[in-house]
């Protein structure tokens, strides 16, 4: 299966970075509907979403998600709630990842251990290539309508995977971990050697 690549230019204003995502509108709508329904619908989060967004979601991400919502013709709240899905249910599952040395350098792979009906995640996976100054900066495994990062590779620097660990710790209000991971891919400068990310 060929995974399509979507390019995001981080030098553009946040509201312009996802232009072209409307070409994946049907996939985005299918995924948004599934995840919003899986969380019980927008109604129960109506008041909480805006206050959480204002307190914890960085303005650039808010602008990106607002623009995505307009481009695919869905409510901004749906895009926001779907982008918070991992944080909302991470206490229910863990994921699998591994890293091994190979003759060509380290190989880092991840298995997203949650399912969807009709293999939606597999069918709609995108390779999202972020650039700065006209050069590849980092790449993540993503989906239409999704602005965060679960797995990624910062070109020439490192690769990273978010791997939930099951625990009995109570949930806390904090910035979305998938946005934090994207920030790390964008801003961490230390070169850790050659990495290969398995898609």
At a glance:
The chain has 199 residues and is of the alpha/beta class. The protein is built from 7 helices and 8 strands, in the order βαααααββαββββαβ.
Word description of this protein:
With 199 residues, the chain is of the alpha/beta class. It has one domain. The protein is built from 7 helices and 8 strands, in the order βαααααββαββββαβ. The chain has helices at 25-38, 46-56, 59-72, 76-83, 85-89, 120-123, 177-187, and strands at 5-9, 96-102, 105-111, 126-132, 135-142, 151-154, 158-161, 196-197. A hairpin with a 3-residue loop joins strand 6 (151-154) and strand 7 (158-161). Helix 3 crosses helix 4 (76-83). The longest helix is centred in the N-terminal third of the chain and has 14 residues, at 25-38. The chain is globular, with a radius of gyration of 16 Å.
Fill in the keyword field for this structure.
199 residues; alpha/beta; 5-stranded mixed β-sheet; 3-stranded mixed β-sheet; 8 strands; 34% helix; globular
Contiguous helical run count: 7
Neighbour order of strands in the largest sheet: 1-4-5-6-7
Q: In total, how many domains does the architecture comprise?
A: 1
Please give the largest β-sheet.
Answer: 5 strands, mixed
Mean pLDDT: 83
Low-confidence spans: 191-199
How many angstroms separate the termini? 11 Å
Strand content: 15-25%
Q: Tell me the number of strands.
A: 8
Percent of residues in helices: 25-40%
**Helix/strand order:** EHHHHHEEHEEEEHE
What is the CA-atom radius of gyration, in angstroms? 16 Å
Structural class: alpha/beta
Overall 3D shape: globular
């Amino acid at each position: 299966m060929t995974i399509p690549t979507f390019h995001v230019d981080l030098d553009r204003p946040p509201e312009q970075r996802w232009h072209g995502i409307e070409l994946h509108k049907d996939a985005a709508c299918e995924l948004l509907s599934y995840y919003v329904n899986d969380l019980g619908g927008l109604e129960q989060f109506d008041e909480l979403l805006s206050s959480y967004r204002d307190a914890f979601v960085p303005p650039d991400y808010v602008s990106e998600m607002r623009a995505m919502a307009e481009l695919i013709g869905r409510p901004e709240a749906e895009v926001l709630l779907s982008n918070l899905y991992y944080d909302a249910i991470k206490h229910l599952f863990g994921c699998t990842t591994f890293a091994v040395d190979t003759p060509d350098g380290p190989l880092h792979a991840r298995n997203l251990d949650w399912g969807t009906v009709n293999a939606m995640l597999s069918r709609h996976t995108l390779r999202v290539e972020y650039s700065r100054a006209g050069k590849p900066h980092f790449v993540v495994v993503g989906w239409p309508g999704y602005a965060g990062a679960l797995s990624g590779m910062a070109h020439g620097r490192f690769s990273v995977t978010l791997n939930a660990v099951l625990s009995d710790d109570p949930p806390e209000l904090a910035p979305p971990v998938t946005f934090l991971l994207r920030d790390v891919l964008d801003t961490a400068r230390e070169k850790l050697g050659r990495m290969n990310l398995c898609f």
